[in-house]
């Protein structure tokens, strides 16, 4: 059982990745962002997930540097993720995008770099670039985001190495069982973005019932379900009480029956784009 905030899963290349982290999707540059990241690190979070398209890598980098100075945290204690955006997919352009992200973050390396979306005719070349970056020792781990089974199969067909992580939209109404099974069977760590479905699950009767049963919030029930399913999760919040609340997951365990009830809520319902119909 994942029993503390700094517990890690080991990726197939031996790199240890925290099971739990902070996402910063759509958090604008400025004090709110810096304070949220610093507070999370102070509370014991060690994983921070950003992306080029979020437009906040500089603020995340500032927060990391300040947290390291103020709290005595070492760089190798943190796990920092970013992603290459669609317009930069390609071999040379992906390598350049990685260097840009490093510069904005003010870091010498990333722990994980992902292809953000599987843009057809582009993501295979981008994957070759990630393999190069990895082989040159500039990044600890590489992976993909929003990839379906057929996208993964296309990469695996000619790749020198398989993705170490696949970060996808994942919550009780979108369990992506086929993709998760493929990743599990191939040693690719499954990771959830939008695990709380942007708050759309908070009024669900079953989840409210389970929250009462375990004396937890609906958010905590969902995030615990993620962890017990072997899914790394990175809920977003800028509010200190939510950052604390979201991480209080390690003093209870959902029963197998209740895990099944939550999984049965699946309706293949997305809040984000369909990876097979990308128009951006």
UniProtKB/TrEMBL annotation:
Pfam families: Aldo_ket_red. It comes from the Bacteria. Residues 31-267 form the NADP-dependent oxidoreductase domain. InterPro entries: AKR, AKR5G, Aldo/ket_reductase_CS, NAD(P)_OxRdtase_dom_sf, NADP_OxRdtase_dom. SUPFAM superfamilies: NAD(P)-linked oxidoreductase (SSF51430). PANTHER family: 2,5-DIKETO-D-GLUCONIC ACID REDUCTASE. This is Aldo/keto reductase. It comes from Neobacillus driksii.
